[in-house]
Design brief:
Elements: H1 2-23, E1 28-38, E2 42-45, E3 55-58, E4 61-64, E5 81-87, E6 101-102, E7 111-113, E8 118-119, H2 122-125, E9 129-137, E10 145-154, E11 165-174, E12 180-181, H3 191-213
Antiparallel strand pairs: 1-11, 2-3, 3-4, 4-8, 5-7, 5-9, 6-12, 9-10, 10-11
């Protein structure tokens, strides 16, 4: 009986530690990247890594992946439906700064748009990193998913003969239909949470050895 009560108590500590580790940002999936488009290439953005790309980024445009489009070079997809980006309303993409909210209600100066391809303005993304806000509906979901793509333009500009290149530095999405902040990624567990988990697992191992020796 003593071992049973102790095991239950230790299991509760482990569960508490695991819950604390995942509670803060468990709904955010982040994919780091450092991919160059080159002068003519494109980069497919597949947020969930399952059904194919939802968007495609070139050095000058963001493209929505649709079932039939001769302008796209994506392999597989579309991985979603109802794809949109935060734009200016004039075939342009709005550059978001870190911490800006991406959700159902666009920030002032932005509109949800689905006209594609949309131009990435060199002056907005060169030479700094900015975020493109997107939303889409993944297969099997009844809600729209919100996410961001971190983009950088570099090496010249539109006045230098269209010699810009693009770089995708990462992308992330929120899995429950809630808003996400530009640049938001899952938080690293607090040191106290790690200690709690380690202590719980260590105690469980010790208890198991005691049972084997008794």
């Amino acid at each position: 009986m003593k071992h049973t009560k102790m095991a239950s108590r230790i299991a509760a500590y482990v569960a508490a530690g695991m819950g604390a580790a995942g509670a803060a940002d468990a709904a955010i999936v982040y994919t780091p990247a450092n991919l160059d488009t080159g002068f003519e290439g494109t980069i497919d953005i597949d947020f969930d890594g399952i059904n194919g790309a939802e968007f495609s980024i070139s050095h000058e445009q963001i493209k929505i992946v649709v079932p039939v489009d001769g302008n796209l070079t994506t392999v597989g997809g579309p991985g979603a439906t109802n794809q949109e980006y935060l734009g200016t309303g004039f075939f342009g993409v709005n550059d978001l700064m870190m911490g800006e909210e991406i959700g159902p209600t666009p920030a002032l100066g932005s509109v949800w748009a689905s006209t594609y391809p949309a131009d990435i303005d060199y002056g907005q993304f060169d030479p700094v990193n900015r975020y493109i806000g997107v939303r889409f509906t993944l297969p099997g979901n009844a809600f729209q998913t919100y996410g961001w793509i971190e983009v950088q333009e570099y090496d010249g500009g539109i006045d230098a003969g269209h010699d810009n290149q693009g770089r995708v530095l990462g992308f992330a999405y929120e899995t429950t239909g809630g808003s996400i902040l530009a640049g938001q990624v899952p938080e690293v567990p607090e040191p106290g949470t790690i200690v709690l988990l380690a202590s719980g697992f260590g105690a469980l191992a010790m208890l198991r050895r005691r049972k084997q020796n008794s």
